[in-house]
Design a protein that fits this description.
This is Crp/Fnr family transcriptional regulator. There is one protein chain. By secondary structure, this protein is of the alpha+beta class. Helix content is 51%, strand content 23%. The strands form two sheets. The chain has a four-stranded antiparallel beta sheet with strand order 1-8-3-6. Strands 2-7-4-5 form a four-stranded antiparallel beta sheet. The longest helix has 27 residues.
């Protein structure tokens, strides 16, 4: 839990009181590797914060899946449509290892953000980080080669390389597994 609190405070320096208020409204759950936490087409009622573990968000269409993000301790797992608009989501979230999570209803989370400015600011900072991360991925896909994107991943997020299956890493980088294998072997 200390790592989660540290990451929470890195995003925004919440007070002990705000932190305790948030924690009182969550339920700690442990779920197994491979668990599909969030499913597309469903109006999800809960959001989750990773205390310990590793997960991926992905889209599934026409028998193929595309990994759009990875998440580690301190990060948020949610369906954006369900949280923002109370409508069915387009994403899936799979746990890539056993995860300890803090579960909170979207309604409760909204209420905390409305009543507690520190938590609202923390939520905004978390959102800002997600937007920046997705924007960076989008820009990199357009302007960098696959090898350059891989090198950035190695520098920025080595944990992904240690924990995620190669197919998910290739999908996240927008390349085939064969291309990823060549890049990793130094062949371009």
């Amino acid at each position: 839990m200390e790592e989660f609190i540290k990451k929470m405070r890195e995003a925004y320096p919440v007070s002990d009181g705000a932190l305790q208020l948030f924690l009182r409204h969550t339920e700690r759950v442990t779920l197994p590797k491979g668990h599909l936490l969030i499913r597309d087409g469903v109006v999800e009622k809960y959001s989750y914060f990773i205390v310990r573990g590793f997960a991926r968000g992905f889209l599934y269409r026409d028998g193929k899946d595309a990994t759009i993000w990875f998440a580690t301790a301190g990060m948020l797992l949610l369906s954006m449509n369900a949280y923002l608009f109370r409508s069915s989501g387009y994403e899936n979230v799979e746990l890539l290892e056993e995860c300890d999570l803090l579960k909170i209803s979207n309604e409760t989370l909204d209420g905390l953000f409305e009543k507690e400015v520190e938590l609202a600011n923390w939520g905004r900072r978390m959102s800002d980080r997600i937007i920046l991360r997705m924007e960076r991925l989008f820009v990199e896909r357009y302007f960098l080669t696959a090898a350059e994107r891989y090198r950035l991943l190695v520098e920025r997020e080595p944990e992904i390389l240690q924990k995620a299956p190669l197919r998910d890493i290739a999908s996240y980088l927008g390349i085939s597994q064969v291309s990823l294998s060549r890049i990793r072997a130094g062949v371009q």
